[in-house]
């Protein structure tokens, strides 16, 4: 239903243009959570903003596009993407305080989101707002509906944001680092809520994070992104059992294991260099222990494990377990 096909986004800067996102393809089905994971700056948010039609002015889709139920939406103005029809995309961000209006009661903001798309009376909209607050498990919703955002905790505000996102009855929900600003207990609750909403409402969720650990707990399938490209795509269990791209293997080595102290973590040598003019071949080659000279050659091959699991690599780590 949501399909991103060969999406390439070019950003213009004073020093020239660069590709922030290169040939990204992914698809999402109803009731499915797709994790999009990668280090800061790898292009996750630009990918999601392109799908929402909310790219900053200096960025543009230079190739490929985003399709919703078969219709290309990349070049539609944002109000058409979010407006009528079966397919709607809603988004929640990391910091609800920046997206909630601080001088408006939470309930009014939900009512407004409902009435932008549906002609219902104030009373009906308010009743539905209470329902939505209940659905995101805000206790005592009939009272909480009259709270201002600052009267709520961080976790409660993120739930309110989710309620606003659901007010337009979306078929796709993009959650961009939705729990990064929250403490671990609240994070677990919010991720559990997203899973339950996905299952009960059959929304498709694009879950964006730099945290491979939460992906393991939440996603059905995972795309790993590095320097603007998807480098590995797999069902979540298979990704963790058989990481195939050397970058993914490095990411997993950075995951803390229970009982381990952070000082003992392995890390990938080097850091992702800033994006500049397109280099040929594999963007990870400069940091990769397995790289050979032909890793600088284009085009890179997709290695197919045969388990709906592919990696963009010439010398992938091969399967270790059956
Ligand atoms: N408004 C912008 N202007 C210029 N460059 C940007 C802008 N937004 C993002 N970028 C650049 O695009 C790349 C991808 O950024 P982003 O998608 O925000 O990464 P992520 O969400 O994975 O951390 C980065 O190199 C970032 O510096
Ligand atoms: Mg981001």
Notes on the structure:
The protein has 322 residues and is of the alpha/beta class. The chain has a domain at 96-169. The chain has helices at residues 44-52, 78-82, 96-99, 106-117, 122-135, 141-144, 154-166, 184-201, 212-218, 236-241, 246-253, and strands at 2-13, 16-28, 33-37, 59-68, 71-72, 89-92, 172-176, 204-209, 221-226, 229-235, 302-304, 310-312. An 8-stranded mixed beta sheet has the order 6-7-8-3-9-10-12-11, with helices on both faces. A 4-stranded antiparallel beta sheet has the order 2-1-4-5. A hairpin with a 5-residue loop joins strand 11 (302-304) and strand 12 (310-312). It is globular, with a radius of gyration of 21 Å. The structure holds adenosine-5'-diphosphate (ADP) and magnesium ion. The site of adenosine-5'-diphosphate has 14 residues, from strand 1 and helix 1.
Sheet/helix structural class: alpha/beta
SS summary, helix count: 11
Give the names of the bound compounds. Answer: adenosine-5'-diphosphate, magnesium ion
Percent of residues in helices comes to 25-40%
* SSE order: EEEHEEHEHHHHHEHEHEEHHEE
Shape: globular
Number of strands: 12
Main pleated sheet? 8 strands, mixed
* Rounded radius of gyration (Å): 21 Å
Strand residues, percent = 15-25%
Termini separation comes to: 32 Å
Helix and strand arrangement:
Blueprint: E1 2-13, E2 16-28, E3 33-37, H1 44-52, E4 59-68, E5 71-72, H2 78-82, E6 89-92, H3 96-99, H4 106-117, H5 122-135, H6 141-144, H7 154-166, E7 172-176, H8 184-201, E8 204-209, H9 212-218, E9 221-226, E10 229-235, H10 236-241, H11 246-253, E11 302-304, E12 310-312
Parallel strand pairs: 3-8, 3-9, 6-7, 7-8
Antiparallel strand pairs: 1-2, 1-4, 4-5, 9-10, 10-12, 11-12
Helix pairs in contact: 4-5, 4-7, 5-7
Bound molecules: adenosine-5'-diphosphate and magnesium ion.
């Amino acid at each position: 239903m949501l399909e991103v096909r060969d999406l390439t986004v070019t950003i213009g800067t004073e020093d020239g243009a660069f590709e922030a996102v290169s040939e990204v393809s992914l698809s999402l089905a109803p009731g499915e959570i797709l994790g999009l994971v990668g280090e800061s700056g790898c292009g996750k948010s630009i990918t999601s903003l392109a799908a929402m039609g909310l790219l900053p002015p200096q960025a543009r889709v230079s190739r490929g596009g985003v399709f919703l139920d078969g219709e290309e939406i990349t070049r539609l103005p944002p109000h058409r993407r979010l407006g009528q029809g079966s397919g709607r995309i809603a988004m929640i961000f990391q910091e609800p305080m920046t997206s909630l209006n601080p001088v408006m009661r939470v309930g009014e903001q939900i009512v407004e989101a409902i009435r932008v798309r549906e002609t219902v009376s104030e009373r009906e909209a308010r009743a539905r707002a209470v329902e939505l607050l209940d659905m995101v498990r805000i206790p005592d919703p009939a009272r909480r509906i009259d709270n201002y955002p600052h009267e709520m905790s961080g976790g409660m505000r993120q739930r309110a944001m989710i309620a606003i996102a659901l007010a337009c009855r979306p078929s796709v929900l993009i959650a961009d680092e939705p729990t990064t600003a929250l403490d671990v207990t609240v994070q677990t609750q919010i991720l559990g809520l997203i899973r339950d909403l996905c299952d009960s409402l059959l929304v498709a969720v694009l879950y964006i994070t730099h945290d491979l650990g939460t992906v393991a707990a939440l996603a059905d399938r995972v795309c790993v992104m590095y320097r603007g490209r998807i480098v590995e795509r797999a069902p979540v269990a298979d990704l963790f059992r058989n990481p195939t791209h050397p970058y993914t293997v490095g990411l997993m080595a950075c995951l803390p294991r229970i009982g381990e102290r952070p000082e003992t973590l392995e890390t990938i040598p080097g850091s992702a260099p800033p994006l500049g003019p397109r280099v040929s071949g594999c963007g990870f080659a400069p940091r990769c222990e397995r790289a050979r000279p032909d890793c600088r050659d284009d085009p890179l091959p997709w290695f197919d494990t045969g388990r709906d699991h592919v990696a963009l690599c010439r010398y992938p780590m091969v399967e270790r377990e059956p």
